[in-house]
Amino acid sequence: xxxxxxxERGWPQxxxxxxxxxxxxxxxxxxxxxxxxxxxxxxxxxENWRRPRTEVxxxxxxxxxxxxxxxxxxxxxxxxxxxxxxxNSLDPAMRxxxxxxxxxxxxxxxxxxxxAVNYGGRWDILxxxxxxxxxNPKCSLDDLDEHQLARHLSTGDQPEPDLMIRTxxxxxISNFPLWQMAYCEM
Length: 186
Hints:
The chain is an alpha/beta fold. It has helices at residues 2-8, 13-33, 53-76, 92-105, 121-135, 146-151, and strands at residues 38-45, 79-84, 111-119. A three-stranded parallel β-sheet has the order 1-3-2, with helices on both faces. Strand 2 (79-84), helix 4 (92-105) and strand 3 form a beta-alpha-beta unit. Helix 3 (53-76) packs parallel to helix 4 (92-105). The longest helix is centred in the middle third of the chain and has 24 residues, at 53-76. It is globular and about 55 Å long. The two termini are 16 Å apart.
């Protein structure tokens, strides 16, 4: 929705992405004040690699800038920050920053903030199957059940979402957390 928002105003796409990022702090504070314990924000999907290289680069720089700027405040507020998605294919500097954010905030319990970066619901299901198989090398896939698979998803230790909001006006699921959203209100 950030690109569409900027386009409607005749502004560059990067301006829309930056405006969306600025709202994150306010959104987290509003959630905490209302007793919400977990929020997942979609920053960059696996499909976003198809966008123009300049936009991809701008999005990655924006994410790194946001992480560097806000990580200390998030930690002080007791926010556990988790970047979900295939981080192995990201730039090494980005991976290092993500690992630092995970390490710094891993014991925080006030609020869980998941930021989906290079994430796709299909990828998450596939990596969950692989993770389960790695944890159970002597088992057959016939032994795998829904409960076991769910624990290996990127948000396997968190409750399933109750609500999904598409701020851009879209009415499709896209490639969001497909498994986790099975009973989610839209």
